Amino acid sequence: MDAKLKQELIQTFSERLSQAAKMYMENCSRCGLCIEACHAYASSPETRYTAVGRAQNIRRIYEEYFKKGKIAKKLNEAVELSDFWMEKVYETAYTCTGCRRCMTYCPFGIDTGVIQGIAKMMLITADQEPKALSMLADMSIAKGKTIEKTKTNFAAAAKNLEKEVLERWRSEGGEDVVPLDVQDANVLYVALAGKHSIIPAAAIMNAAKEKWSLSYFEAVNFGAFVGNPAKTKEIAGRIIDEAKRLNVKEVVICECGTAYRVMKHMTGEKPFGVITFAELIARYIEQGRIKLDKSKLPGKVTYHDPCQIARQGGIYEPPRYVLNHLTDHFVEMTPNRQANWCCGGGGGLVAIGEKDFRMKSAKVKADQVKATGAEVLCTACENCHTQLSDLNEHYGLGVEVMYLSDLTAKALVQD
Amino acid sequence: MVNQIFYVITVPMVYLAVAWCLVGIAVKVARVAKTPAHPFTLKIFPDKDHPVPSAVWGALSMPTVRRHNPTFWVFLILFHIGVALLILSHLDMLPWFNIYPEDSPNMIGNGAVGVVVTAAILYFLLRRFAGPLREVSVPADYLLLFLLFCVAMSGDIISWANSWSENGFVLTKQDFGEYLNGLFHFSWADPAETIDGGHYVVLVTHVFLANLFLMVLPFSKIMHTFFAIPLNKLRRG
Ligand code: SF4
Ligand code: SF4
Fold first, then answer.
1. A320 falls in which pLDDT band (50, 70, 90)?
2. pLDDT tens-digit profile of A77-109?
3. Which protein residue's CA is at the shortest distance from atom 5 of ligand 2?
4. A31:B72 CB<8 A
5. pTM
6. Of A17, A18, A25, A27, which to mutate for an interface test with B (greatest number of B Cβ within 10 Å)?
7. Is the pLDDT of residue A215 over 90?
8. Which residues have CB under 6 Å of ligand 1?
9. Which residues of A33-52 are buried (b: 16+ CB within 10 A; e: fewer)?
10. Is B166 strand, coil or helix?
């Protein structure tokens, strides 16, 4: 590795050393409490797939470049940056899903997600990050810049969805089925690319007679997956600008955990509320704005808490509230809520493929699903949905993996 | 020559170690304090209504350890309470502290506290030799625990084994109290003049190891003493 790159990597590292990161680097007592927390370790078990194992890759580089004393460096196994150690940096960044389950084991609450953030940024500096993620992030940013030119096409595509939305919910005459650019809307709904994330949501919001508007932008934030804070902000910024322009009351993020966490917790104060679609459905039920038919969902149903909206967002109860209005046969996974096992697909792993590793590292999740005996496995995050569907196939779980929005839309009762 | 070395260890080196330790801690804490905060919240949900008291309680009672490894938790709690009591019992040696009766030859806990702490350290050390923990441990982890073990062991000999003579204590709390009091008042007196006998060398060993420990402390992960609360605060919002 040449000296210039080394210097740049150290610079990147130091820029990422926030107060929290510094404390995380210096205070881990290597007590090993977090070892059992990680689904990848629980499924393998290989020590390199533990929170402390991954963090040590980064901490040993820290010891070399940010600490003094030859003896201390030796005793702390400091290592110089090299191609080999950049591979270990990659391992830290892309074998961890950033689920932060380990944080609930660690006596100090060390956040492996922050350490993973350092690793991801180092990879970007070394031009070694998964290119698919950078490319997708850049595409999102480019779309923000050329939005005016693509609006007509987008509106035509939205129009095309009308028939399918109406199949789920027959709206009143003259009502916009998939409304766009609605000034002063109550809800700006930010979907994903793909009609599966628009049709059920549109049907539900129309059923609730909501004044809503579909965002021109997709919710997913590849900037966050690749670990680039500037791009993360820029991608989220497109939606924030749109929400401000339309003067909406709330931005409702579709079933995408990362998009929700970024919008709610990583982009500062905003003049509008940010909620998940699960919360919106729960609100409609509570206010009696939609009615659901329990007979549409026979058989046992279980729920997977997406890490990004549950542990990192606190959205534990609304999806359960909705499910309890969809079925009398809801069963919890063990463990659940804050202690739930990650599906194994977060942190960009689903987007970059990595199927072998995803399947191997999430055996514990598959076992957990199997143990419920459920026929339907519901979740509220696209990333989790993809990973759980892969697990379903790989481990022969025999469940049907469904979105909460889809289950709800199918059970809507039209009076 | 030996006497001189003993004097250096028991008096000037103590001052040096304490000053080094305090300055080291201050510098480390200041460095972290002036680093910009993380750009976004690191809290874990459900979040707490009172993050500060909850962080303090969390740092002191370690609920996550209790939940996930109760045996380890018992040793950790015994160790930390033990260390707190040991600090207190060292202060209690000073004539103006009177937690234990002034004329008692014993330290607080009659030597038992030190033994419990030693056992806990031994447990921390031994558990590092097995399983995945061995793979993530670095030499500094073993050495630090070994150093602590030696400090505690030598302390045990002073506070406990010291009393196993036919006539009870060879050296009493009052003897050590006089030495500590001298240090406090910068008398620069040689403790060898008041403390005598075969056990003196154990005292010197204990003080030497404790000095070493104090000097290492600011560069070690024992700094978590000062960061455990702010760290716990981060995950509580
Ligand atoms: S954040 Fe999740 S995946 Fe990463 S080390 Fe912690 S438990 Fe494992
Ligand atoms: S539980 Fe926390 S302190 Fe212990 S090894 Fe893991 S990250 Fe380090």
1. very high
2. 999 999 999 999 999 999 999 999 999 999 999
3. A30
4. yes
5. 0.95
6. A27
7. yes
8. A 37-38, 40, 51, 54, 96-102, 112-113, 342
9. bbbbbbbbbbbbeebbbbbb
10. coil
Write down the mean pLDDT value for chain A: 96
ipTM of the assembly?
Answer: 0.95
pLDDT at A415: 73
Q: Which pair of tokens denotes residue B207? A: 């003080």
The CA–CA distances, whole Å, from B208 to B12, B15, B188, B205 equal 11, 12, 17, 5
State yes or no: pLDDT of B170 exceeds 90: no
| Amino acid letter, residue B41 | T
Q: What is the dihedral of CA B162, B166, B171, B173, to 10 degrees?
A: 80
**Do residues A358 and A345 touch, judged by C-beta distance below 8 A?**
yes
Residues sharing a CB contact under 8 Å with residue A400, sequence separation 6 or more, in sequence order: A375, A376, A377
CA of A233 to the centre of ligand 1 (A): 24
Q: What is the rounded distance in angstroms from the CA atom of residue A41 to the CA atom of residue A265?
A: 28
Contacts of A267 in chain B (CB under 8 A): 40
In this predicted structure, what is the pLDDT of residue A174? 67
Centre of ligand 1 to C-alpha B1, Å, is: 57
Which residue of A lies nearest to B30 if distances are taken between CA atoms? A19
Please give the average per-residue pLDDT across A56-85, as a whole number.
Answer: 97
Do A26 and B223 make contact, defined as CB atoms within 8 angstroms?
A: yes
Q: What CA–CA distance (Å, rounded) separates B97 from B86?
A: 14
- Give dist(CA A174, CA A283) in Å, integer: 26
pLDDT of residue A170: 84
Q: Which residues, listed in sequence order, are joined to residue A180 by a DSSP beta bridge? A: A214
CA B189 to centroid of chain Cα atoms: 25
Between chains, do A33 and B65 touch, taking CB under 8 Å as contact?
Answer: yes
Q: Residue A173: pLDDT above 70?
A: no
Q: Whose CA is nearest to atom 8 of ligand 2?
A: A28
> What's phi and psi for A171, nearest 5 deg?
-80, 165
Mean pLDDT computed over every residue of chain B: 92
Question: pLDDT at position A63, please?
Answer: 97
Q: How far is A26 from chain B (nearest CA, A)?
A: 6
